[in-house]
Each structure stands twice: as structure tokens, then as C-alpha cells.
Write a structure and sequence with these properties.
Largest sheet: 2 strands, parallel
Strand order of the largest sheet: 1-2
Helix content: 40-55%
Shape: globular
Order of helices and strands: HEHHEHEEHH
Length: about 110
DNA sequence: GTGGTGACGACAC
DNA sequence: GGTGTCGCCACCA
């Protein structure tokens, strides 16, 4: 029973270009509720049961910190990001604003 | 049906 | 500027 909010989150996450990342708040704001950032995170949690591949490793918190790395099943969320060309040090994305992909700007709703 | 929690964010102090 | 608290909505017990 995927809510439209969730589906929107998944769609946006899948639209994230390679080598780019976004924040929960950015997606939430794109959906119309910047304060619903928690729902975006929850959507990521539910994404585990989804048949689609959700590049959750491209979604980090507003600080560019890999907040959800602990929940990530992969051997290393950081490794995935580095493979994308993103520099990650100590679970912190370097040049975050440079790799930051804001749907509100890129998609220009 | 109620209460508590959660991959966060913004505002208040 | 750092810390604390509220908010937001869906899911689980």
C-alpha cells in the first residue's frame, strides 16, 4: 500500500543522476512538505521491501552525513558513493554542495 | 483506537 | 552558533 508520497519519493530518488546526492528535506520539500523529511527517511526504510532498486545511498541528511549507513545492507554505502565519484570521508560527503542534486532546482517543479 | 517510534528538518531559546 | 524541542505523517505493538 504505497502512498503517493512514498511513490513520489522513490521516483525522485531514482531520478538522481550518477555522481549526485540529495537530502531528505529536499525531497520532502519537493513533495510539498519540507517538514515531512522524516517520511522520506521512512520511505527509504520501506524501500527495502520494494521490487525496485532504490539508490538510498544517494540520499543523505541535510548535513551530507550518511545517517542511514547503519541501515544499509550493502557492504559499504560509502564505497558505493565513492564509486559514483563522490568523495566521502568519515561518513561525511565532501564538496556536498557540489554533488548536491536538488529536485526543486533540477526538476524545477 | 491509542501510543510510541523513526534513514530528518526547521524553529526557538 | 550549539542545544533543545516540536512538527510531520506512516507504520508497528
Amino acid at each position: 500500500m504505497e502512498s503517493d508520497f512514498f511513490k513520489m519519493v522513490y521516483e525522485v530518488v531514482q531520478l538522481i543522476p550518477n555522481g549526485r546526492v540529495t537530502s531528505y528535506g529536499a525531497i520532502a520539500k519537493y513533495l510539498g512538505s519540507s517538514r515531512s523529511s522524516r517520511m522520506v527517511g521512512w520511505a527509504m526504510n520501506a524501500a527495502h521491501s520494494l521490487p525496485y532498486k532504490i539508490p538510498a545511498h544517494r540520499v543523505v541528511n541535510r548535513n551530507g552525513l550518511l545517517s542511514g549507513k547503519m541501515h544499509f545492507p550493502a557492504p559499504g554505502m560509502q564505497s558505493l558513493l565513492e564509486r559514483e565519484g563522490i568523495v566521502v570521508i568519515n561518513d561525511q560527503i565532501q564538496n556536498f554542495k557540489e554533488v548536491f542534486w536538488d529536485p526543486n532546482t533540477e526538476l524545477s517543479l
